[in-house]
Specification:
With 265 residues, the chain is of the alpha/beta class. It has one domain: Aldolase class I (TIM Barrel). 42% of the residues lie in helices and 14% in strands. An eight-stranded parallel β-barrel has the order 1-2-3-4-5-6-7-8, surrounded by seven helices. The radius of gyration is 18 Å and the shape is globular. Bound molecules: 1,3-dihydroxyacetonephosphate (13P). 1,3-dihydroxyacetonephosphate binds next to strand 8.
Length: 265
Amino acid sequence: MFTLAVRTILGSFAKYMEMIMRPLIAGNWKMHGDMGWSDKPEVFEKYYPAKSREHLDVLICPPSPFIAPLVRSCSKAQIYVGGQNCHVAESGAHTGEVSAGMLKSAGANYVIVGHSERRANGETDVMVKEKALAANKANIMPIICVGESLAQRESGKASDVVSQQIKSSVPNITDYVIAYEPIWAIGTGKTATASDIAEMHAVIRKIVGNKIKILYGGSVKPANAQQILSTANVNGALIGGASLDMESLAAIAKAAPKNASTKNY
Ligand code: 13P
């Protein structure tokens, strides 16, 4: 009887946390864009003015050279800016690399770590964990990416793979975001079904607890955004292709649930 009561209270608390978690709509521009794209936040603002989106956070992660110019235009449009990767070290002889502290000093508030396109080039869970820790030390929010391949899904190992990635890639920190991006859904036009997403996000929720945002990524478009963003335990999206066009990024953001109200920006 007592256990049941405790379970009911914990259950409602979990639902409450879920309800108030602010959606995060994050665009990953990957290796696209040029300096002319610094007017994109203004275009976004026209499609979806800041005063109508106080219930959510919008983030754009451009290639590194465009972070600083975008920070200027994004702050007017109340959009956060993030990096797409960082090095584990604060500074040093690492030609071509960028540290989390440098991203922060350029005005970024987030950094994506462990994207599958980087994992495919040899980035391991250990490296992802160190990068997330470096981001945390630099006071920048890591978005830690996980996701299974098609072969892993087809052999029934998706949950085990993702659980293991989380256990090995998340350092001992309290502020981070998880992005679940099934590799086979990235840039392919294929999305996981709502029940596949709900199932995997529930697995992730069990590991990370109720205070961590879990984004879904993989061919999120205006046409499927509402269904994905209203799925249980989905607290936002990480968007590739559709984030390059401000009209479609705004349409996706408009599909986010409106029941969260804490203003973060
Ligand atoms: P697409 O939205 O183009 O499938 O890319 C997803 C992604 O990799 C975001 O990080």
